[in-house]
């Protein structure tokens, strides 16, 4: 009976977040297996910090102090923690969660009123403020696959394929995390938590420019579509982050545009930006466009 309940479509915001938490378990477990158990410590620290900050806001607003009551905060905390390198100091997730909960969520009035995805706001803040602490170093190559691809000099794709930072499909380790996130994402699709439009649009947005700039693997190639799907945080972005119903547009056509733009921005930042993976910045830029797209939809309906 309990298993059947988890396979049914959720009917409340809390039930939706519970499904998202369950869907994150494979990605978190695989990430801890690949990158080390300290990632689980970061998850715990982020959750404790999130509970504390949410309780503080509830107390200051003279509301019942019940942290995690709607489960949105633990979702944000875990999305932040899974992206923080295990070697980062433990105060990094605390700062990221503080920005996410206090500024990106509660300052706007709480769940349902925030303009920016809280997890990406918190993650981007520490990424910009503490770049050295947020750099993931591969144990053998000294760089991730996205780093090796961008800073390879005149080498072709074949030349750098033997680099230990590369796996079979994408980045070493990251390909397994992305595969686990894909499994969790397919579960969210199956139980009706997310619609397929935005995830598909994000993946197409990443793939099309990758096809245009792949050119078979020369020294100018920027990587194949499959590589970009299974490198960085692509699948987490497609299924868990861009699909946030609060910060994504409501109209079907606008969701296609929103998802495609995020995917294309992820590729563009990877190809020419200052950061190896552009998920956080791409999503935040997409969030900025959401109110415009929603108002455009209302204007067309009114006319």
Describe the structure.
With 303 residues, this protein is mainly α. Helices cover 63% and strands 0% of the residues. It is built from 14 helices and no strands. The chain has helices at 2-7, 13-35, 38-60, 72-81, 91-105, 118-129, 145-150, 157-160, 174-190, 197-214, 225-229, 234-241, 252-272, 279-302. The longest helix is centred in the last third of the chain and has 24 residues, at 279-302. It is globular. The protein starts with a helix and ends with a helix. The model is unreliable at 137-142 and 299-303 (pLDDT under 50).
Q: Average pLDDT across residues?
A: 86
Number of strands: 0
Based on CA atoms alone, the radius of gyration comes out at 19 Å
Q: Spans with pLDDT under 50 lasting ≥5 residues?
A: 137-142, 299-303
Describe the sheet with the most strands.
Answer: none
Helix content: 55-70%
Pick out its properties.
mainly alpha; 63% helix; globular; 303 residues
Task: Write a compact overview of the structure shown.
It is built from 14 helices and no strands. By secondary structure, it is mainly alpha-helical.
Q: What layout of secondary structure does this protein have?
A:
Layout: H1 2-7, H2 13-35, H3 38-60, H4 72-81, H5 91-105, H6 118-129, H7 145-150, H8 157-160, H9 174-190, H10 197-214, H11 225-229, H12 234-241, H13 252-272, H14 279-302
């Amino acid at each position: 009976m309990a298993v059947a309940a988890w396979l049914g479509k959720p009917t409340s915001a809390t039930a939706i977040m519970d499904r998202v938490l369950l869907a994150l378990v494979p990605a978190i477990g695989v990430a801890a297996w690949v990158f080390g158990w300290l990632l689980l410590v970061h998850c715990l620290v982020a959750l404790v910090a999130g509970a504390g900050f949410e309780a503080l806001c509830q107390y200051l607003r003279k509301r019942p102090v019940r942290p995690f009551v709607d489960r949105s905060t633990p979702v944000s905390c875990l999305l932040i923690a899974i992206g923080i390198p295990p070697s980062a100091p433990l105060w990094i997730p605390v700062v990221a969660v503080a920005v996410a909960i206090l500024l990106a969520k509660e300052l706007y009035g709480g769940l349902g009123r925030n303009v920016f995805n809280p997890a990406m706001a918190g993650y981007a803040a520490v990424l910009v403020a503490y770049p050295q602490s947020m750099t993931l170093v591969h144990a053998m190559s000294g760089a991730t696959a996205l780093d090796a691809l961008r800073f390879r000099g005149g080498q072709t794709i074949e030349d750098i394929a033997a680099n230990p930072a590369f796996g079979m499909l994408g980045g070493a380790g990251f390909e397994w995390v992305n595969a686990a996130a894909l499994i969790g994402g397919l579960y969210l699709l199956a139980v009706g938590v997310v619609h397929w439009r935005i995830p598909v649009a994000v993946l197409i947005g990443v793939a099309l420019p990758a096809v245009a700039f792949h050119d078979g693997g020369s020294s100018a190639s920027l990587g194949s579509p499959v590589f970009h799907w299974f490198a960085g945080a692509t699948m987490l972005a497609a299924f868990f982050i861009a699909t946030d119903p609060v910060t994504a547009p409501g109209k079907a056509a606008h969701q296609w545009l929103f998802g495609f733009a995020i995917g294309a921005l992820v590729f563009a930042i990877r190809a020419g930006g200052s950061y190896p993976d552009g998920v956080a910045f791409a999503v935040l830029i997409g969030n900025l466009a959401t109110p415009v797209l929603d108002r455009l939809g209302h204007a067309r309906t009114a006319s």
